[in-house]
TrEMBL record:
GO molecular function, one term: pyridoxal phosphate binding
Cofactor entry: pyridoxal 5'-phosphate
Protein name: Pyridoxal phosphate homeostasis protein
Modified residues (N6-(pyridoxal phosphate)lysine): K41
Amino acid sequence: MNTARKGELAASLAEVEERIVAACEAAGRARDEVKLLAVTKTFPALDAALLADLGALDLAENRDQEAAAKAEEVAALRPDARIRWHMVGSLQRNKAKSVVRWADEVQSVDSERLADALAKATKSALDSGQRDHPLDVLIQVSLDDDPKRGGIRLSEVGHLAARIAYVGDIRLRGLMAVAPLGTDPAEAFEKLARASERLREDHPNAREISAGMSNDLEQAIAHGSTCVRVGTALLGGRGLASP
């Protein structure tokens, strides 16, 4: 069964890779400018381990409770794999201590209070030896000002970026967004690209643009995305996670 599933994942990974290569060529960009983030939420740890075997070492989750257990299980399954875990879902401040134990990057920072909580938790983890490096973070922005979908207004990015730079122990790497439903994703990603340019004026190391998923990664890459978050196109319809 593992062999069959690995074959399925290998085929899907090859198809997604072809799409990314084609999109980069169309945009006049190098393939290595775009990172593939495999979104393994609701799928078992074995799928994550098999993806790591296939070279997909950047894995993403959107719920701390599921991710913490899964990261531990994958570490046991593949102790030598150099996996980087990314938190891409909405995050409550009371989960900060748990998240910093497993995540290399949090892409969904959308408030000063969350940034402060992550910085405090990261400092504690560094001091206690639970971590050996700062936490990378991205600011999640809303491209349609719909609070239900998460993210801050574009006008608030500069203020939150300044706060992240001030608190220390977390490193601002860029912006993350989801294209609004029912709109042209290209327009949304162009807006995000302009916001990224403004951010880099004061924070030159915040170069990451996390945008584009299974259905719109081509448009995102055309507008400068450096990280596409792909779940369904890699793993299929949502499965059932490990206990």
